[in-house]
Amino acid sequence: MTATRTPGMPVVEDGVLISTSPATGAEAGRVPISGPDDVASAVRRARAAGAWWAALGFDERRTRLLRWRALLAERIDELAELTHTETGKPPADAIVEAAAAIEHIDWAARNAKRVLGPRRTKMRLLLAEHSGHLEYQPYGVVGVIGPWNYPILTPLGPISGALAAGNAVVLKPSEYTPVVGQWIVDTFAEVVPEQPVLQVVHGLGDVGAALCRAGIGKLAFTGSTATAKKVMAACAETLTPVLIEAGGKDALIVDADADVSAAAEAAVWGGMTNAGQTCIGIERVYAVAPVYDAFVEAVVAKAGKLKLGEDIGPMTMPGQLDVVRRHIDDALASGGRAVLGGAGAVQPPSVAPTVLVDVPEESAAIREETFGPTLTITKVTDADEAVRRANALPYGLGGAVFGKANGVRIARRLKAGMVAVNSTLTFVGMATLPFGGVGDSGFGRIHGDDGLREFGVPKSITVRRGPSLLPSMTFERTPAQVRRIVKAVKLLYGRRP
Ligand code: NDP
User: Fold this and answer.
1) For 421-446, how does the pLDDT look when each residue is reduced to its tens digit (9 = 90+)?
2) Other beta carbons less than 10 A from residue 268's beta carbon
3) What is the tens place of the pLDDT at every residue in 335-382?
4) What are the pLDDT digits (tens) for 153-211?
């Protein structure tokens, strides 16, 4: 039986999910599949654990989360090795991924109290006798559904925010990377052994769907746009709020005054790191005419040096090979040219770096998420045309601009939640910045202040401090008092600017 398994394809045997390396077929580990009752009881346990965790308060949670961060930092090599085995990504890429996740845990732990803790709001003249108090209270239980491409970083974004905010979390990792998910949860239990504050449930899509319907307070989903719609529909049944981090088709714009060599280096890394299986990966490049030829030449030179199996790992999900093959074939059939890789690039379980030019804008390689180590490069007359083309898709996740004088101006005009100027993907590692997209790439944010607020319910409290000068909210107000209110409104707001 084992001999016929496709490397990387998860196998279910007797209620156990067996995860294998897409590169070698070696077993990465096995985890028990959760049934609907298991999901329900995990959420039930999480509810009690969440109340306990919330009651610890910001300072104690900070200490526990920083201990967890330290444990992950100590064992980063072990985590990277496991991730390398389960996804096939090069160990160095797994280290970079783990480092970013650790940074986010550290930041969330240190900033949750400032962002979510109780504060008084500014006094206004109307209702001046009341003070306003705001705090962000946890949802109770947050469900986190994650993808396989970054099995450490993508779940830990919402998990770190949700835990720091005082929620318990139930994680459903992708069926392709359950072992990394289990490892994350097990290490947390080492620093928080008292209660199941962070749990994991395993299985296929039906387990994720069961989590949506299990009475959680909020769901944070990271995955494809198509699945995001199913998740939203399931959550809509109970009006459970959702945060959606979905797919993208990010563009890089190279302006006339760009450092062409740096732009090429970034395009190759942004497009081909993790074998291109990156939600914020660069998939399309729009280079202005004066730098186009030099840029293409530099990209081909740099991408041509990447080695399969060393710099470029296998496709984590074997089925993805067909998608990448279809996009390359379609691009070539519709008039595109491969200046690197191309027709024979798909060499299971990997895809060789491929650079396509002259690809029509209607082609799948330009319009759909490819998720492989491929780049299309399109010549444009100027930055305006580049922005127009970059913005032409329903997606709007990230993007990048290379240019000196107008880099930030161009970045502002891109339909995207995040843009890196003179680098690529940087925003995902910057813990102070919110991460998320617009349009088909989703809504809601992880990371940064906004990412923390995503996991707290704003609670507004007013406290009466004295008698009302302008009593409006009582049946006992007199006509004279109403006239005083009119006078006050005119005085305060009647002046035109
Ligand atoms: P999928 O949408 O296929 O799966 C995501 C998760 O949802 C998996 O855990 C999956 O479980 C689960 N799932 C599947 N069906 C359902 C369902 N009906 N109800 C609830 N959960 C379900 O995405 P991939 O795992 O293939 O990940 C790749 C995608 O993720 C790409 O589109 C990529 O761009 C996007 N992504 C977005 C990021 C962002 O931050 N915006 C970051 C990283 C990736 P199972 O695997 O068991 O089917």
Assistant:
1) 999 999 999 999 999 999 999 999 99
2) 26
3) 999 999 999 999 999 999 999 999 999 999 999 999 999 999 999 999
4) 999 999 999 999 999 999 999 999 999 999 999 999 999 999 999 999 999 999 999 99
Task: Enter the pTM of the model.
Answer: 0.96
The reply to whether 357 and 490 lie within a common domain is no
Domain that holds residue 413: 250-394+398-435
245 given a catalytic annotation: yes
Q: Which atom of ligand 1 is nearest to the CA of 204?
A: 47
- Is 212 noted as a catalytic residue in this protein? no
DSSP 308: B
Q: Say if ligand 1 is within 6 A of residue 147 CB.
A: yes
Distance CA 481, CA 493 (A): 18
Residues 303 and 190 in one domain: no
Q: Does residue 242 share a domain with residue 338?
A: no
Q: 311 to each of 222, 246, 307, how far by Cα in Å?
A: 25, 26, 5
Are 230 and 319 part of one and the same domain? no
Strand stretches in 127-228, DSSP E: 130-138, 141-145, 168-172, 198-200, 218-222
| Selection from 397, 423, 431 nearest residue 99 by Cα | 431
Q: In terms of domains, do 180 and 233 share one? A: yes
Instruction: Please pick, among 86, 279, 283, 369, the residue that the annotation labels catalytic.
Output: 279
Omega of the bond leading into 353 within 30 degrees of 0 (cis) = no
